[in-house]
Amino acid sequence: MIFVIVSTLSSLTFVCKEFVGKMERKLKNIKWQPEYEFHIKVIDESHRKLVDLINRLTEMINRQACPENMSEIFFSLIHYAEHYLIREEILLRDLGYPQLDQHKEKHHFFIEKIKSFREKFSSENPDICRDLYDFLSEWFQNHVLKYDKEIITFLKKKGIS
Ligand SMILES: [Fe+2]
User: Fold this and answer.
1) Average model confidence (pLDDT) for the chain?
2) Collapsing DSSP states into helix, strand and coil, what is residue 93?
3) Which of 97, 104, 106, 140 has the fewest CB atoms in 10 Å of its CB?
4) How far does the centroid of ligand 1 lie from the alpha carbon of residue 74, in Å?
5) Region 30-157: CATH code
6) Separation of 3 CA from ligand 1 center, angstroms?
7) How far is the CA of 123 from the centre of ligand 1 (A)?
């Protein structure tokens, strides 16, 4: 019996330490890498803007100052979507990019997701900052660094720099 109690207590201590460790672990900023640079002004500008935005969110989360500053993040995200994503689409449309519809669909998904985060935020979901951070980091890794690469080859062939 005593063994069971001691063993349960030590497991609980372990779980608590793990939890506290996770809470204290700071998120890391994204450091701009040379391989993120595609040498196409419009695209690089858009990607730098997004990295800057994710880093601002990261700092807010680390300072535990996120929820009260979320309107600023949403404002920047909407500007990013309306300005940079649309500019990318216009450029691709003007040059006759064959997979434009598929690419636009991905952007549409991003915009809808941001809208739904904003709605959830209005209803005061406390995990919103971290969930948004996870979504944006994933978008950066998968859309920006992988999917956008496909349009780079096309744009370079068209002589865009
Ligand atoms: Fe894109």
Assistant:
1) 86
2) helix
3) 106
4) 19
5) 1.20.120.50
6) 58
7) 30
